Amino acid sequence: MWGLKKGHEDDGESTPREDAASMDAPRSTRSVRSAQRNNHDSREPTERTRLLDDGRRPPNADGYLDPDDPAVSPYNLWSVRFLRYFTILFFMISCLWWTLLLISIFISPPGMHSRGSGFFDFAFTCLTIGNLLVAIIFFAAPAKALRVTTAIIAAFLVIDMILILAVPRIRLEEGWVGIASVVWAVFIAIWCIITDRVVAWGKKEEEERLTGRPETRRTLKEWLAVLVATILTIAFIVVAILMTGTLSIRARDSTLKMQGDRILVDGDKYAVHLACIGNVTYTDDKRDPTILLEAGEEPSEYDFEHWAYNAVQNGTINRYCYWDRPGYAWSDNAPSPHSAGMSADALSEALAKAGEEGPWVLVSAGTGSIVSRIFSSRHLKQVTGLMLIDPMHEDLLHRIGNPGRGFVLWGWGIISPLGITRLAGAIFKGRTRQDRVYGRNAYQGGKFIKAELQENLVADSLSKNEVSSARNIQSADTPLVVVSSAIKCRSDGEWERKQRDSTKLTENLVGWDVVNKAPHQVWRTFEGRQVMEKRLKELVKASRKVNGTTIEE
After folding, report:
1. What is the pTM of this model?
2. Helix residue ranges per DSSP H, 325-445
3. N or C: which end of the chain has fewer CB within 10 A?
4. Distance CA 127, CA 153 (A)
């Protein structure tokens, strides 16, 4: 039976022989035993004082309590009760930290910005809260299985801590917030192991003291508690393994070399990647414009920059610069909130620190056109040409600022530390570092997701206001080229109307082309690349007539 203890089937009842022995004992002996019992009841409370024994619950004839008596509890020990109080306190601290980290994803509190995504420290804190919840809920049901599984979790968390501290790039991205989160997670895992062990010791001690021997069986309720706790900690082990694998991939990706430099901006809060290819040239004593690339929904290095490199090889242009917006490729994430105008300011600061000078011909695609238009309006004398490739219009920013899209991005960000798709791609499909950092799988990274989430949060508010103001400021004589996707225009009438409206940003339209069979990324078709290169050559020629910079002797 579940309620019986092995070897205790007749506990609580004296045998006739024991009763007779008790009756035959001298009266003086019975008096001594009674006095000892009274002295025991009158002693000062100690750690071993039974909290639930109010004196009205008589012991068995042998002086012991029934094993199922509620007074038989590890909570009788002050040490056990203090461990529980501290566990609850740690849980409250972790919940407060979890709340701050959740807020920092959307609005960075002062001093809490990290250059990484912020999803890893959030994940470590979630794991910490999970461990504490299991410890609190199943506090009075210690089990060796629970200690073993928690020890495995602690081991993987120690590996995570070592990776974060040992790899400079990861340490820089996670910052003090990420380091504090993983150290706290390791401490709590070890705390849970020690707590469970102490409770097991206290339970055994109290059973020996109050029932005469330690318990050798569990009730059905206790078995269920141990089973549920073990299943939960096994799930936590899987989470810890996946997080360790993702951190290992990040460590591997951090060794990928890049062109150009990472430049600190915005008061040295974060760094952006900037690279320039080619040589400065002059025509008729005037400096030829440098092409400044602004990618769309993907990093510049993902085939958009390759098109510009081919243009240099073909002699169409002599020099170009490209950068990664915050969160893309080698650039850090910026503090939240972060608008398109803030990206334009970060680009301006990076160019100034790198010693790069105009004039500039801005070539941008998709959502990147918003940043380029704002940059152009803030550097009217330096920007001598605009080339927009299937650009995003300010009236359509509500599409990327949709709350539903934001919620989905947040959800993907929360689970991004598990790296399920990234790990599967690396193990089973041979995905390379290039694929993950700036290639077709870059969208799976936490930094990239955070950047898209930041764009989503302010697209239809701050960014829209900034680009609308830029349109009113934009110089009317700046040469303009618009190249649109025929597929996009034919499938979306509103998109086509807004493409037409984009040709009216200035009064100096060099040309508008709708490339047949071209997707949103027009340069991915041969015809698209040809049209873009042809129009770029015309734009550079037209830009030489606008605000050229004379050579200083």
Report:
1. 0.84
2. 340-353, 368-378, 397-400, 403-415, 420-428, 433-437
3. C
4. 9
Which residues, including other chains, have CB under 8 Å from residue 354's CB and lie 6 or more apart?
261, 263, 274, 276
pLDDT for residue 26: 46
| pLDDT reported for residue 531 | 96
Q: Are 353 and 446 in contact (CB under 8 A)?
A: no
Contact 384, 547 (CB under 8 A): yes
Domain spanning 261-403+443-550: CATH superfamily: Alpha/Beta hydrolase fold, catalytic domain (3.40.50.1820)
- What angle do helix axes 119-137 and 78-106 make, rounded to 10 degrees? 150
- The domain ranges of the chain are 75-253, 261-403+443-550
Strands (E), 191-278: 261-265, 270-278
Distance CA 69, CA 80 (A): 19
Long-range contacts of 407-414, Cβ-Cβ distance < 8 Å, separation of 24 or more: 409/449, 409/452, 409/453, 409/456, 410/105, 410/453, 412/449, 413/105, 413/117, 413/119, 413/446, 413/449, 413/450, 413/453, 414/119, 414/122, 414/123
